[in-house]
Design brief:
Blueprint: E1 4-7, E2 10-13, E3 18-24, E4 33-39, E5 46-51, E6 58-60, E7 68-73, E8 78-83, E9 92-99, E10 116-117, E11 121-126
Length: 127
């Protein structure tokens, strides 16, 4: 069983920054590709970014490219999302997710691929 706990959400003004963290239980963290998704009220959950098992490859949705940065520290079993130049449309509940399938690679945006999810952390950007 894999457990994920997000933290770092909050209220920020447009143009500001936040850093989200996702702590993952288990001793095989480095074998998981991971991702961040977000869901705004009344909208479907959408892909934000993904990072490979080693951290050497990252993928971003067009809406966040150039503003958000995903990273991971395999020694700490933790993934991060640095969010800069935040916009009101970035407001959502942000979820981290784990892809335990060792054969998937590249840009994987389908939520159904990810087997484990955190409880989510709220990010609100005021205008």
């Amino acid at each position: 069983q894999v457990q994920l706990v997000e933290s770092g959400g909050g209220l920020v003004q447009a143009g500001g920054s936040l850093r989200l963290s996702c702590a993952v239980s288990g001793r095989t963290f480095s074998t998981y590709a991971m991702a961040w998704f977000r869901q705004a009220p009344g909208k479907e959950r959408e892909f934000v970014t993904r990072i490979s098992r080693s951290g050497s490859s990252t993928y971003y949705a067009d809406a966040v490219k150039g503003r958000f940065t995903i990273s991971r520290d395999n020694a700490k079993n933790t993934m991060y999302l640095q969010m800069n130049s935040l916009k009101p449309e970035d407001s959502a509940v942000y979820y981290c997710a784990v892809d335990v399938n060792p054969t998937t690679a590249g840009l994987v945006t389908r939520a159904s691929v990810y087997e484990y999810w955190g409880q989510g952390t709220q990010v609100t950007v005021s205008s």
